[in-house]
Amino acid sequence: MSEHSESVTITIDDVEHSVPVGALLIKAAEDVGTYIPRFCWHPRMKSVGMCRMCLVEVETPRGKILTTACTTLVADGLSVETESDVAVKAQEGVLEFLLINHPLDCPICDKGGECPLQDQTLAYGPGESRFVEPKRRFEKPMEISDLVLLDRERCILCARCTRFSEEISGDPLIEFAERGNVTQVLTFPDEPFASYFSGNTVEICPVGALTAKPYRFRARPWDLESVESVSLVDSFGSKISIQSSQNEVVRINGVDNETTNHGWLSDKDRFIFEAVHSTHRLRTPLIKEGGDFREAGWNEALDLISDRLGGFSGVEVAGLGGARSTNEEAYIFGKFLRTVVATPHIDAQLGDGLDSQFLVGATPRAEIADLEKAATILLWGPDLKEELPVLYLRVRRAATELGASLIVLHPRRTGLDDVADHSFTYRPGRGPDILRKLIAGEGEYAAAREDLASGPVVAIVGRSGLAEGPRLAEAVAAFARDLPGGKILPIVRRGNVLGALDMGLSPTLLPGRAALASTSAKVELERLWGPLPDAIGRTSRGILEGLADETIKAVFLLGSDPARDFVDPALARQALGNAKFVVSFDLFISDSSHYADVVLPVEGFAEVEGTVTNIEGRVQKVNRMVPGPGQSRPSWAVLDDLSRRLGTDLGATSAESISKEISAVAPAYRGISWDLLDWGQGREGVLVPLSESDQPLQYVPVDPGLRTVSVAGMSLHLGRVLYDDGVLTRMSPSLAALMPTAAVYIHPRDARALNLEEEQHVEVITGTGYADLAVAFDDSLARRTVYLPANLPETAMVGSSLEVTLKPIEDFGEES
Amino acid sequence: MSRLAEWSRNARLRANEVLSAYPDRRSAVMPLLYIAALERGSVDEGAQRDVAELTGLTAAQVQSVASFYTMYKRHGVGEYLVSVCTSISCFLLGADDVLGAIIDETSTPDGETSEDNVFSIEHVECIGSCGGAPAVQVNYELVEGITEEKARELCRWLYGSRPKIVLSDEMQQLFGGTCSFDWGPAEESGAISAVPSLEAYGSAGRESQQP
Amino acid sequence: MTSILTARMNEYPRDSHELATYEATGGYTILRKALAEMSPEAVVEEVRASSLKGRGGANFPTGVKWGFLPPLYPRYLVINADESEPGTFKDRQLLERDPHQLIEGIALSAYGLEVNHAFIYVRGEYPKSARRIERALAEARGEGYLGKDILGSGYDLEITLHLGAGAYICGEETAMLNSIEGKRGEPRIKPPFPAVEGLYSKPTIVNNVETISNVPWIIANGGLNYAAIGPEASAGTRMFSLSGHVKRPGNYEIIMGMTWRDFIYDLGGGIRDERALKCWIPGGASAPWFIPDLHLDVPVTIDDTATHGSMLGSGAVIVMDETTNVVAAAHRIVRFFSHESCGLCTPCREGTTWLENVLLRILSGQGRSIDMDLLLDISDNISPGLKWPPAQTTICPLGPSSVSPITSIMAYFRAEVEEMIASQEAIIV
Ligand SMILES: Cc1cc2nc3c(=O)[nH]c(=O)nc-3n(C[C@H](O)[C@H](O)[C@H](O)COP(=O)(O)O)c2cc1C
Ligand code: SF4
Ligand code: FES
Predict the structure, then answer these.
(1) How far is residue C47's CA from residue C30's CA, in Å, rounded to a whole number?
(2) Over the range A182-191, which residues count as b (16 or more CB within 10 Å of their CB) and which as e?
(3) 3-state class of A301 per DSSP?
(4) Chain A residue set in contact with C, beta carbons under 8 Å
(5) Ligand 3 nearest atom to the CA of residue A49, by list position
(6) Which tens digit of pLDDT belongs to each residue from A591-612?
(7) C320 DSSP β-pair partners
(8) Which residues of chain A have pLDDT under 50?
(9) Residue in A47, A53, A89 nearest the CB of C384
């Protein structure tokens, strides 16, 4: 919304108001305190004026007419009566019409207590029914997907669900069917409402017609307590409301805000709460004895750690993780490692992201909101629908509603290709060559190149797949920054990765987006922290290699699971197996904590309080709704405890005290306080840096001069899917059930050339791993490319390499 | 594999023509539903899926459109779809009795298909033949000015002679009465099924093709 | 009597639909002349001057509507041949008996409106009309009256025949546009009006078959000559479809201005079996009814009918004699609107069905005395104030159309309704 929007004067119920020009009457009236009842209107969707609940009387040259406030734009001199006899009679009439066929089963309806139909019936409805005919009947709730149930008798046909699916999420699997009085919402018989965004329809359904299985009958709305927070499922920073009943999180809803999610969530954001109360949550510290874990008390566990640490020099210890923690936890982790342990080996990324300086410092930086103004969007990175689904919604909106030209480059068709103006598939490894052609506007790239000449351009860059390496994104960014109004949004997926890097969890960064290489920053930090290690730190790969070759002996894992998540899981497993001492802070026994000597139960999402920083650098507050299970504690408190045992005081008395320290220590975080975020202007988050000139680390992307890699056989595209085998998904039963079965995807014509048939089993061999998978055809794939969905149970050990070989299993059998 | 491989070559050609007649693929949904109905025998789930594939819509979107319009018969119909207008003008002139006679004669309730799959009987709203009320359509081919007795005869005739192509003028001559207006010369085209008979949909029967 | 639209079919009852007949009677010479000698603006100007009003039901001046087009391209012209208003069958005759007259009308109009792609939306239940149009389009293309570079003028026009599939609501112009776009035939919220944002969101003119069939005559003879026919605000000839209990039902092309008495008794030959006239509907099922005591001497013009609280609508006159059970007749009409409601907006979806069910209950002998007020109040919640022209709580006029029979029987036959309810006798079970 423009800051200096003009206003017009309208009269609502005989009172004059000044309202913004171009506003919808229903919204303008609400903003000045007149609530006009409504069902179908939703502020994030186009007006359809269907339910007719918002009828008001408007003065026209031909006299007063009844019209819907949700389809009327304010104009100077508009005069409206929302409570005239005629308006009220019309509204009451509509309500009566909606109720005649409604089952009125409020006592057993999930929506009871927060149902606009119920509320408005109390407020405007007739006392008793004049309707003596039989009500419309439908078969009771239908399961329209694994997550959603539909009760057509309760439906008031507002079309919010169908419009959301068509207009916003772009998967119109739920639609009106039939017509007239038997109109109903329906899916196709054998095509479930399998949308990554289906939960939004449950949230916006004004009645209890759509309900979510994970929430159904869990609580009554009036029993719920709620707190605003931020989703940590990915790095987008969606604002959520965490709702609990009797100290148990039972629901997550989206919170509308201008800056990030517009109120929408992915189903993963929404239903991940099941993991919070999983019976698999760790409740006490565990100590490994004779190969098995046994429960232990905190004192024993921490004593053991401080004891064992005495046996290593600082540089023999490393830390991995922090990308799923709060900024406060990450900061303390870094401070602990750098000052107490005195090691420079720290990394929050697991080889699957981007260069950390590029990620935090690339300029000029795009905000998510820049998508609203973009003329052209260049998306060269992951399939957003799979990796950052709510960012996908924002880009989709820009392309479909706001007229931006969208250019997508990816090894196969992505969720956005449908709405893209130009989309290209390419073989992994050939990226540099494709980029050169795009820059030159050669051949098929000419039209896209032309669109890139109209700005503002937002370039969203990241790794298309895990096999392709991180540097291409920098080359794309280097090109994009020089385009008219060019801004860059580098993206990675994991929860608070940017926050962790901002807290210095990288071998090259200090807290506050300062480069370790910057002498002044280092001097300044040493003034506050004391001396820092001189040695050059290693990245996660370096750390794991160090563990493998025993130059590094001990490792702290802060909520990180390299055995699963590191790009080369075989190396990670070998490293952890070889390590002399492994300490894991975790919610669950993950694949990596199996290797730990001590596992410490920590509080996590919905339990900890603190701040996080999303992918555009927006700092937001996460809040505590419930206590963690058993003896679990916040990791910062554990680290503080441990540091005191080691003779140093980290001075972390509370998460808020840490936050204050961060704003004092970290240049980019100056001025950010919890007060500001909770109550002040920072309720929609505060962007760090606030402006280009405040950006402490100015990283100007440069083309790293990559050459196209020629792969002799097939190239591998290892891409993430939304419901992968991450531990939180696995621990949320509703989501775990949605995990797809992995297959090896190949273009049908390549398959023919290789004599492979659909569903045939093959051995997939990469440079670092293998998998046994069935063949599936995908004609949207670039030729001579094999696509594997990453991190599914069957592909967990594949690892990434550019080249891949497929061997029919029969051949293999014959050879052996 | 494409579902359309099961379609006749002709139907695929017609589908392509229809698709190219509009500035937008989605626009072809309605004509394609007719073509699919002819290929699959009804606008059943299979036909709706076919059209989804042709237009790039989801099956739910196609279902949404198909179920809106009464002429897309999703559950199949018999050889002869007999539609009796019972809207106001026909009602005033005895349409309910005509419907009753037809139900009785074919032993087929309103809205249903006879067991031998010969007749589907339905009452319909105004079919634009009010001047020739009461009016009946067989596979959308019209008879005007019909009576109870003539309606029974019409059913018996359909049952007995099983015309492959239903011709409006022939029926009018045999069973009809007052017309809404002078129909002019007889048409040689008629219907071969309960899909409106139109060249573009491959459903325009010709008398000359009659055996 | 002047006949414009039906002249050819009256004169050549065997082959008025043939291209040869059409050409032999001067067909397509007007198009040739217009393309060669007239600017598009000049064509539009003649139509404006003719005072032609839309024959689809709303009587909106065609030239005025054409003037709403913004200077944006492409534009579309859509011909409304969805004729489904109960009682109406005039367009069917024009489609079947003189398809080339319509096609030439479309070509002229499209040229005037600078349209290169027009659509004819024929209702699905009119396969014969569609076949005649289909054939005529092929013939016209074959002769170069359609297609690229028409008659060497450089002007291109393609006409696509779109067949409906059974939905009255698609006669409503914006529902029709949705239907052509391959969507459910649900009306759109106006504004924007189709002229500004219509088919594929482009400027679009929707006109009725009869409206456009007048255009060749108007261009050939001049708009002012057309305007000179008939009473001032009801210029030109007009097709009426007469049905019900009259001796001579059928389509009549007349000059407006005669009285309803002359219309029913002279043109229609009076009531069958010499029975008494009970009431009639002057303009299709949507229109409020007229009764002999009040309305026989009202002139058949757009304005006079409106002054007396009804409309000429689609030109469908449905006559009911003394034997008619008005509750049953009203039920039939309400049932139609309930069946044809698209279901999009609440008052129409729920209200029409509720009205239907209450009437059905009365007919089945289970009426309650409060039902009369209930019927009126439900009606009032669909069409507030129960006035004419109707107000509406609905998106489009379909819902309020269902109210006309209710207000009519309550206004003129309340005692009869009361009696029926009291008798508790089942008419329909
Ligand atoms: C419910 C409804 C049904 C309609 N049905 C028809 C119809 O069958 N034929 C028609 O020409 N106009 C019909 N109309 C009117 C059209 O919306 C539109 O006004 C007309 O096609 C414009 O053409 P005209 O200006 O030439 O009359 C209908 C309107 C409504 C509201
Ligand atoms: S299911 Fe809910 S959201 Fe969807 S149309 Fe019905 S009431 Fe509206
Ligand atoms: S809120 Fe305005 S019509 Fe539904």
Answers:
(1) 14
(2) ebbbbbbeeb
(3) helix
(4) 47-53, 55, 65-66, 68, 71, 86, 89-90, 93-94, 96-98, 100-101, 130-131, 133, 156-157, 176, 178-183
(5) 3
(6) 999 999 999 999 999 999 999 9
(7) C279
(8) 1-4, 812-816
(9) A89
Q: What pLDDT is attached to residue A812?
A: 47
C326-428: CATH number:
1.20.1440.230
Nearest CB among B29, B131, B168 relative to C128 is that of B168
CA atoms within 13 A on the CB side of A791: 28
Range C6-227 has CATH code 3.40.50.11540: yes
Residue of C nearest to A182 (CA): C343
Same fold, C232-321 and C326-428: no
B41 φψ region: left (φ > 0), alpha (ψ -120 to 50), beta (else): left
pLDDT in the model for residue C427: 86
Q: Tell me how many degrees the CA angle B72-B74-B75 measures, rounded to the nearest 5.
A: 135
Residue with CA at minimum distance from ligand 3 atom 3: A49
CA dihedral (A31, A32, A34, A36) in degrees, to 10, reads -30
Contacts 24+ apart (CB under 8 A), A171-175: A171/A195, A171/A196, A171/A197, A171/B58, A172/B57, A172/B58, A172/B60, A172/B61, A173/B58, A173/B60, A174/A144, A174/A201, A174/B60, A175/B58, A175/B60, A175/B61, A175/B63, A175/B64
Ordered by start, the domain boundaries in chain C are 6-227, 232-321, 326-428
Contacts of A660 (CB under 8 A, 6+ apart): A673
Label residue A568 left, alpha or beta by phi (over 0 means left) and psi (-120 to 50 means alpha): beta
Residues in chain B: 211
List C-alpha distances in Å: A782 to A423, A747, A787, B61, B106.
12, 7, 9, 29, 60
ipTM: 0.96
Range C5-19 average pLDDT = 96
**Buried b vs exposed e over C146-156: b needs ≥16 C-beta within 10 Å?**
beeebbeeebe
Task: Of A694, A358, A354, A376, give the one whose Cα is nearest residue A492.
Answer: A354
Q: State pLDDT tens for residues A555-590.
A: 999 999 999 999 999 999 999 999 999 999 999 999
Tell me if A93 and C347 make a contact (CB, 8 A cut-off). yes
Tokens of C140: 């016209």
From the list A800, A793, A738, A743, the residue with the least C-alpha distance to A769 is A800
Q: Are the Cβ atoms of C165 and B33 closer than 8 angstroms?
A: yes
Query: From CA A297, how far away is CA A745, in angstroms rounded?
Result: 49
| Mutation site for A-interface testing, chosen from B1, B45, B50, B58 by largest number of A Cβ within 10 Å | B58
Q: A68: which chain C residues are within 8 Å (Cβ-Cβ)?
A: 189
Query: A613 pairs with which residues across the strands?
Result: A619
A vs C, Cβ pairs < 8 A, gives 96
What pLDDT does A694 receive?
A: 82
Task: Give the gap in angstroms from C-alpha C15 to the nearest C-alpha of chain B.
Answer: 7
Ligand 3 centroid – CA A238 distance (Å): 28
State whether the beta carbon of C162 lies less than 6 angstroms from ligand 1. Answer: no
> Residue A111 has which token pair?
């929506």
**Angle made by CA atoms A31, A37, A43, in degrees to the nearest 5:** 55
Determine the topology of domain C232-321 in CATH.
Ubiquitin-like (UB roll) (3.10.20)
Distance from CA of B56 to the nearest CA of A (A): 10
CA distance A782 to A778: 9
Amino acid C225 reads N
**Rounded distance, CA B44 to CA B66, Å?**
10
Question: Using one digit for the tens of pLDDT, what is the confidence trace for B129-182?
Answer: 999 999 999 999 999 999 999 999 999 999 999 999 999 999 999 999 999 999
Q: Tokens 């032309």: give the residue.
A: A450
Rounded to the nearest angstrom, the gap between the alpha carbon of residue A502 and the centroid of all alpha carbons in its chain is: 19
- Partnered with residue A346 across adjacent β-strands are A319
